[in-house]
Queue: 2 jobs
Job 1
Amino acid sequence: MELFQNLAMGFNVALTPINIIFCLVGCFIGTLIGVLPGIGPAGTLALLLPVTMGLPPTTAIIMLAGIYYGSMYGGSTTSILVNLPGEAASAITCLDGYQMALQGRAGPALGIAAFGSFIAGTVGVIFLMLIAPPAAKFALRFGPPEILATMLFGLTIVGYLSSGSLVKAFISATLGLFFGTIGTDIFGFHRFTFDIHDLYDGVGLVPLLIGLFGIAEVLLNLEQVITLRISEKKIKGILPNREDWKLSAKPIVRGSLLGILLGLVPGPSNTICSFVSYAVEKRISKYPERFGKGAIEGVAGPESANNAACASNCVPVFTLGIPTSPVMALLMGAIIMHGIMPGPFLIKKNPDLFWGLVASMYIGNVMLLVINLPFIWLWVKVLKVPYGILFPLILMFCLLGTYANNSSLFDMNVMVFFGVVGYLMKKMRFEPAPLVMAYVLGPFLEEAFSQSLIMSYGDIFIFLKRPIPAITLSLAFLFIVSNTFAGLKKRRKLLIEKLQTEES
Amino acid sequence: MKSLDRISGIILFLLGLGICLKSVTYPVGSFKAPGGGLFPLLISIILMGLSGLMTIQTFGEKDKWEALKGSFIPRKDSYRKIFIGVIAMLSFRYLLPVIGFALSSFIFIFFVATFLSKYRWNVSLLFSVLTTLVFYSLFQLWLKVPMPQTIFGF
């Protein structure tokens, strides 16, 4: 069968010494940054992107992907041991995971998180493997109007799912589109460069990302003193017992399914999956009062969901060339930097990249199981490093990494600029994710827009005359409108309440 | 929060206006033959519309977010810390081509460790020396990242 042939080729690629080594490096670094609060996969991928330029494309993507799903494993360790999520997606694990640690059951909690992540991660990769090739074939039927509509829909969903005001999320996206126009356009014309030579190639994805996610995060953390109180109880017995497995089996399965479905949705899907999984488990459980007091289902479900979502997140990138989150945007950026065009043709033209990645994700999941369980003591030691020592190192890495990307001192200015921008955005409750997504999509959006207009001889209603764009854009519109109505309903309610209290 | 939203709304509106005015100086073309200025023009119009909407919203009901999170700046010395951090990073960037990688890193780490992490000067000194050695070996000796020419000529 063609699938097995492809998979065999993939394993051939993934099992070469260089790919195994860099898969391991990626998984290790991923777990490390997952454990450390304050630096996440987006910032780390941006930092290591320049390092991967010297590597062959498949090896680079394998390592970067390893960092991504590795961080999901690492994030659960801090949630359980310290009640502080290393990753947003692991935040919900704090609820029951930390309670289990306080009861002296940190071992089984960590164990089930690792095993659940492994099973779910594997399910996710199987899903990716089965869905992506036929989806890519379907996507080949997409013309510029369809691509534009899908990108706009993706941006709308990211905005809709961002915390805070919808207007602010869209402003964030619009700013991202603007930053994407800075530089030389397809006609060779310089836009918004103000005669600064360094801006001719644009602002730069690496400085923007490192600034927005790395520097801004450090600046935010400088405002408060972070003290971590690690659960002092000794961790005995990593392996969950039979009772634990009985309780966790179904949550793991449900979590995996939830993860692969919600992972397809643009936005912070890992975080959303884990929260939804927790809510589902609590609803379904016969003893919901156990949740929040150390119920192992509250760890098994969410941890499985966020890992399954990692693999399923890759589907839109490899089929349509549309990233669904900043991390995916970076992965896509890495693919582009290596001279490979993402989109429906990627699987056909570069099968070794896709199938090599798929095979390495299987291998990576096994590696992570091995890295996480026996080395818990190492991760606990890492957590004990005071933030006062950590953040200068992070800043140093950011500065040097940004410089090394293009040997450009100007990039450091850009990074600091976006660091301040990111800090201000967070303080003013603007989400940075729509900005990054829009920045990456901007040039493609403009191209699709221009091509659609040329195709239709200037008719802007082409987007409503073709079925797929009409449907996707209407859905996006419905999302926006539904939010407005919800807002209106709430206002009416508050107004009515106000009137009633005034009367009485 | 409301007054901040109002200020940021106005600033964003002015930014949108600026982008709009600049984009019409580029060849906008038409819908039939789009030029380089068309897309930025549309973006600026959307930005002005959204920021205008945000500003108008601040004249509406009571701020729901007020009750939830804390104030804009939680502590008095936060402003100072952020400022010091930014100055430190920019100083590193401007010192690097002048006095070289090793010295700039040393000064940067020492400065940050003393004034932001608030370690005693001898602890900061040790930390800076160690860090500089590690980063030097990593970036110069192992990765061989090309660094700008300094006044010392190396």
Job 2
Amino acid sequence: MLYLLGINHRTADLATREKLWLSDEEIRTLLPAFHRQFFEECFIVSTCNRTELYGVPLSKHSFASDTELFDAVERQMIAVKNAGEEVSSEHFYRLKDMHAAKHLMKVATGLDSMVLGDVQILNQLRQHYDLAAELKTSGAILNKLLQTAFHAGKRTKSETEISKGAVSVSYAAVDLAAKIFFDLGEKTALLIGAGETGELTARHLVSRGIGKLLITNRTLEKAETLAAELRAAAIPFNRFNEHLHNVDMVISSVNSTGFVLSKAELDAVFDNRKRSPLLIVDIGVPRNIDPEVNSIENVFLHDMDTLSRIVQQSLRRRHECIPEVNEIILDELTEFHRWHKSHAVAPILDEVRAVYESIRSEELIQHIHKFRPDDKELVEHVTKRIIHRLMQLPASELRNGIDDTPEQKEMKLHMVRKLFGLNGESHSKEKE
Amino acid sequence: MKMIIDVLTVILPFFYLVTVIAYGYAFIPKKPAAKKFKTPLLIATIVVHLLYIILRTIYFVHPPIISVFEILSLLAFSIAASYRIIEIRTGIKNTGFLILLLSLIFQTISSLFIQDLYEVNPILRNNLLGIHVLSALIGYSAFTISAVYGLMYLLQYHNLKTNTLGIFFDNLPNLERLEHLTHNAITVGFLLLTIAIIIGVAWLPHAFEEYSFLDPKLLGTLLVWVMYGVGLFMIKRGKRTGKQIMKLAISGFLVSIFSLTIINLYFSSFHNFF
């Protein structure tokens, strides 16, 4: 049995999700409490886009139905966050067993992310799993489930293109730079205008290791503030032309009725550049850069239209990858399902093995003196091997019955218990 | 052994075809299976081709460098092997489709027309000939690879200039990397061709009575050498960058192919040995 209770960007808006967001400290308090009251194993993941609780219920609990258990957990989550006014049952989804497992696979592979293919969630899942492991609230089932999810996420990242390509205008500008330059660490970028999109692009460039960043703005103080934050250099707006021969990339996002850079101005400095490539990203509306500059050899001018097309194309490609990711999920779920079924029969197999082992020990004690001392070790080995081989057939039959109905499964277990006089059998007889 | 050689002659183009298809699938629809198998397929093709060259050398008692079709097979092998070295050194594994296509074409032509040459001019058993042909062949392979990278550069340049998004935009390496690869390939090709020419000029007058500096094959090779030499000099002086280097790589390759094939087939030359 696996339960999932969650709230995410599909079921609740940001304000509602914020109300249920759990810090690590809150999870440290909540997880052991849930572990005591409801679950043998439990795990919580909480990010800006989702808060989800996965749990394997206690074998003996006082709830008459699944709904009652879900209700109780939900009430407690809302109560802990004091979110009764904003959060209600309709914001939650409740899934069970393989549906819950499949949901986790979708989360880990980025299929359920707000931006399709955003696999940052994989790191967040790992961190939250570490927390559950530290608090000892995860057990065999959740460990296996999460390892399977991590594997699915890793495979998705390496085997498909779902996480590739820029999905925002600012990323698209940086991706364009990567199509021209080999090593951004050796390049210099000039940001004209410290507006929101320009600033975001500059931040992405810094995160991708741009060698040097120059920032200019009509208000120099604003450029200086951003430059200090990004470890860049601020230059006066009326003198940025003097730096054009040294820069490899220009990002322009100023409010301007005319062009801030004309073809003639660029032509004038271009001979000093040894005609090395210059990428100009014009994200100003109306446009900041004279479109004629694109006619200069080795100058690559791109505007909002190009960037938007790159983003749309990336998103379309990501959508095309969904069937591939679903195949990975199916593979991994099948593997988990197989493991889970065999895990379910592990206790009874242990009991059967114990029965054989006790017979073996008794017989050895009784007859070992009949063998030569030199042969004792061999006898030990051979008798253990016999048990091992005797166990193989029933173990394989029980583990491989993946497609058995619950009734067939129960019947098989019943037969095994009966044949070997196991505790489970006597227990069920007592119940009868 | 003859039967194995005959079988390999027939199946080698298919090895290249399967490898090119795998690289194509990894390049265009980006099939994960193709991505996984393309490099092992390439390695298998190179190994089979090497075996083919060794068997031919043993059975016909001369390295396969005598006829234009033997040389085309060696060129196909040399391009594939050089490409694999580039893959290992640069980590760029998505350009094989275009480069190996040339190996496929060369090997297919070779397999269709190659003959069993039992009789070989004794002059051609000289050790210097081996070095001469080997350095010329690897040099031409380097020029071929430089031309393919040059073509890729021009494609990517065009995409970036015209905002054309698509398969090539996504899959081709960045301009600086392509320029670097092209420049390196031209330099290696030029050095090896220089060695081939020096050995040729020193050895040929002793080997051939009808030797002439006005031989069309020699003039063709010299033209290729001068073209690349002048180009490299201009690059060194900083007067040629980007597109111009690529145009040099492509035009140099075309002249090389002309020198290697058309002149061999249609012009009378002391340099033809079959």
